[in-house]
Amino acid sequence: MTVDELAGYVKQYWPTLKARLLAGEYHPQGVRAVDIPKPKGGTRQLGIPCVVDRLIQQALLQQLTPIFDPLFSDYSYGFRPGRSAHQALETARGHVAAGHRW
Description:
The chain has helices at 3-22, 51-68, 85-97; strands spanning 32-37, 43-48. It is mostly helical. It has a two-stranded antiparallel ribbon with strand order 1-2. Strand 1 (32-37) and strand 2 (43-48) form a beta hairpin. It is flat. It starts with a helix and ends in a 5-residue tail after the last helix.
């Protein structure tokens, strides 16, 4: 299924999908392996979830992030909304400049 086909699928199958999710009976499909070329040669394998699984992942992310993100350390930067590796480096530089050794 493509992203363009998702809306029609969800309209048709949402009651069943919702019931399976709420009952703990939903099982994601296997991911599709795709090799992409690396800039300096070779390939890198990606795992691509199906469109419905990606929709469910995104819905969970949007519901759980506001609950759990505030509980994380202010010094945690990986895979967090509004945070980047550049900000992590700047924070580390600040600690070093302040004389902290670890």
